[in-house]
């Protein structure tokens, strides 16, 4: 039974891929401006609309009061309010209680209904409304006892003003959105240029393995991002260079014992043929001893390479380490292979957080190195004591010839062996492991001369008294 597979439409996937960050920034800027313009325009429109209608109502009320107070005028035996003669821009009339409307002969009667009739009949003190059929604003006030003065002002000019305002706001808002989109595009193009450079650099690294840094300009967040990316590229380049040197040096160191092994094995195979001269027992024993020594050297070299590779891995979960126990375990192992060499030990308790196995290997390498250069019957001095600044030191001093001045800066380099050490067994990686372990724990390793002669190797580690 197969599980369902979610398929994505290629057109949809292509549209998502084409919708770049620059487009999103542009659309976001345009949308924000559009929202702000819409809110401002709506607020301005509603404010102007309320003000215009309020002014219209105030004007209509004032003219209605003036019409009510205007004197009577008589013409052709008819008597009517004098306001009939001065209201050519609006509709005016007098509504009687019997629902009969009197208005100027040259005009049109204002609209009236139950609200205006109630004013004429005295049941209402006045009314103000909008008549939808005639699109006018209608006001009615009591007049001359049982009548109502009714005025109607057209809303057309006011609505035309509002329509013109809406068009102006729409044009201004549209222009603002276009300007915001253009500004967003310019800002996105300039602001995202470092991101584009980072993208190109990432693609270049993935395609060619080229780890050259990217030019940095400015001091903003994107510039700091570029600097961080350059730091990462530098770290990767350094790691690759270390790996390259390690492989090259390992190949060089492996070549000598492998060549010797091959020579000895070919000699033994040649001697085993019937037509070849036989080897003496002494020669055969010497060849076998040489093969065993070369195998031991290869074994040590491979073990040291594995240890260096393991320490180059990401840091493991550290634990509380009693450093005095680590040194004592290393001393137990060193004594078993030290022969006639004695150890003068003085240790003070110290506690730190770290990898006890890596620290024990580092201390053991220092002890083995001291034993290798010390003559039989001599003493290796081991001291561990705090310095009073939050660190402690482990000092291992041998009784050998010491380290030449020109060799001191390089004794912790991988595969480096001084002229005196080239005749002795070893891979040239022991002290490199010591330095790497110390630095992984926030410390350092030093090489110098002991006061009584010989070499003095020191590890300095942070922590606290035990």
Kindly describe this structure.
The chain is of the alpha+beta class. Among the domains are: 69-156, Beta-Lactamase (2-Layer Sandwich), CATH 3.30.450; 236-302, Helix Hairpins; 314-465, Heat Shock Protein 90. The protein has ten helices and 15 strands. It has helices spanning 10-18, 21-69, 114-120, 156-191, 193-208, 221-271, 281-311, 323-336, 356-373, 430-440, and strands spanning 72-75, 78-81, 91-96, 101-102, 127-131, 136-143, 147-154, 319-322, 342-347, 350-354, 379-386, 391-397, 444-449, 455-462, 464-465. Strands 4-3-7-6-5 form a five-stranded antiparallel β-sheet, sandwiched between helices. Strands 9-11-12-14-13 form a five-stranded mixed β-sheet, covered by helices on one side. A three-stranded antiparallel β-sheet has the order 8-10-15. A hairpin with a 4-residue loop joins strand 3 and strand 4 (101-102). Helix 6 (221-271) runs antiparallel to helix 7 (281-311).
């Amino acid at each position: 039974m197969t599980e369902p597979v979610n398929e994505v439409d290629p057109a949809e996937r292509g549209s998502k891929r084409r919708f770049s960050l620059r487009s999103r920034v542009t659309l976001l800027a345009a949308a924000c401006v559009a929202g702000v313009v819409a809110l401002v325009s709506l607020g301005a429109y509603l404010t102007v609309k309320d003000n215009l209608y309020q002014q219209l109502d105030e004007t209509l009320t004032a003219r209605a009061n003036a019409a009510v107070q205007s004197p009577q005028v008589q013409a052709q035996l008819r008597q009517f309010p004098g306001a009939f003669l001065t209201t050519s821009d609006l509709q005016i009339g007098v509504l009687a209680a019997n629902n009969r409307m009197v208005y100027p002969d040259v005009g049109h009667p204002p609209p009236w209904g139950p609200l205006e009739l109630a004013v004429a009949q005295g049941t209402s003190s006045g009314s103000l409304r909008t008549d939808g059929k005639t699109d006018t604003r209608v006001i009615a006030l009591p007049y001359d006892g049982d009548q109502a003065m009714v005025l109607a002002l057209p809303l057309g000019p006011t609505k035309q003003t509002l329509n013109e305002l809406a068009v102006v706001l729409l044009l201004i808002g549209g222009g603002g959105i276009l300007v915001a989109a253009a500004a967003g595009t310019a800002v996105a193009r300039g602001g995202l240029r470092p991101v584009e450079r980072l993208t190109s650099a990432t693609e270049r690294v993935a395609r060619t393995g080229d780890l050259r840094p990217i030019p940095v300009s400015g001091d903003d967040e994107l510039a700091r991002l570029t600097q961080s990316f350059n730091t990462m590229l530098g770290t990767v380049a350094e790691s690759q260079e270390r790996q390259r040197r390690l492989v090259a040096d390992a190949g060089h160191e492996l070549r000598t014992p492998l060549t010797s092994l091959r020579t000895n094995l070919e000699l033994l195979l040649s001697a085993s043929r019937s037509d070849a001269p036989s080897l003496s027992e002494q020669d055969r024993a010497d060849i076998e001893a040489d093969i065993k020594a070369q195998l031991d050297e290869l074994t040590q070299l491979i073990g040291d390479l594995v240890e260096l590779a393991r320490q180059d891995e990401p840091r493991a979960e550290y634990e509380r380490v009693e450093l005095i126990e680590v040194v004592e375990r290393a001393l137990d192992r060193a004594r078993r292979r030290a022969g006639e060499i004695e150890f003068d030990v003085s240790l003070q308790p110290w506690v730190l957080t770290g990898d006890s196995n890596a620290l024990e290997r580092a201390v053991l390498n220092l002890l083995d190195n001291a034993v290798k250069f010390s003559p039989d019957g001599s003493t290796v001095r081991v001291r561990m004591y705090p310095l009073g600044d939050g660190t402690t030191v482990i000092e291992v001093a041998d009784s050998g010839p010491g380290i030449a001045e020109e060799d001191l800066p390089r004794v912790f380099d991988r595969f480096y062996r001084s002229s005196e050490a080239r005749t002795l067994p070893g891979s040239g990686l022991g002290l490199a492991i010591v330095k790497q372990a110390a630095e992984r724990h926030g410390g350092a390793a030093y090489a110098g001369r002991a006061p009584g002669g010989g070499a003095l190797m020191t590890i300095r580690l942070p922590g606290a008294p035990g």
